[in-house]
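Late entry, written up from scratch paper. The run itself happened at the end of the previous shift, but nothing got recorded in the book at the time, so transcribing now.
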Amino acid sequence: MNRTRPSSESVGDTTGHRACLSPRRSTIIAAIALVLLAGCSSGEDHNVAPVTPNHETQESENEGEVLEQRIQRGEGESFGAFMIMDWPKGGPPNIPGGTCMEPAVNEKVVFFCTGAQYGYISVETQALHHAPERIESGWEEIFDVQVQSETGLLFWGSGGGDIWDGISEPLTADGAGQYTVRIHARGRLENQGWMDNEVDEDYLIQVWKTEP
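Output as recorded:
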C-alpha cells in the first residue's frame, strides 16, 4: 500500500508561518475547547477527579514534607496534536498560532503538534513543586514554555477533544500563577507528516510553578 503525506494548511497563524496541519487537524481546536467548556461557567467551582489506577503520587520520605510530584499516564489516538490550557472562564480560549515544529504558546494555552495524524501516543505528566534537578536523557526533543494559570488548574487534552481517564487531574501543583511546561518527545519527528505511526511516539510533560 502506498503511503501519502497529508496536505498542509495554516491554522491560527498570523506570523506568515505555515502550520503542518491537514484539514482534519484544523477541527481539533474547536473540539478541545468544547470538551473543556462542557458544564463550565465562570461562577462554578470545578472538582478534581478522584485518583485512578493510572495515577501515581510520590511522597517525600520525610514526614510532613510536601508531595514532590503527581504522575499521570495515558495512551491513545492523538488526532495530530494536544493542548495544555487553563480551565476556561467566560468563553473559548484564544488559540496560539505558529508552526508544528515547536510548541505554539500564548499566555494561557500550549498547542503542540504530534507526529502521525491518526497515530497513537503514550503520555506521562508530572505535576511538580519545583524545577527538576536534571534534564531527562533519552529524548529526541525537549521544549520549555511558560503559561499562565488564573484558576490554578492546567489540564491536558488530546487533539480529538478528549481528556483521557489516565490524565484527568490538573497538571498544576501550586495554585494560580505562571508555570513552566517542559515537553519531552520521542518518535515525533519520524512520524511527522504520516497518517499512521512509523515508530512508537512517547511524551513526558513536566509542569512546575515559576516566577515571571
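Confidence is low (pLDDT under 50) at residues 1-67.
(Scratch paper discarded after transcription.)
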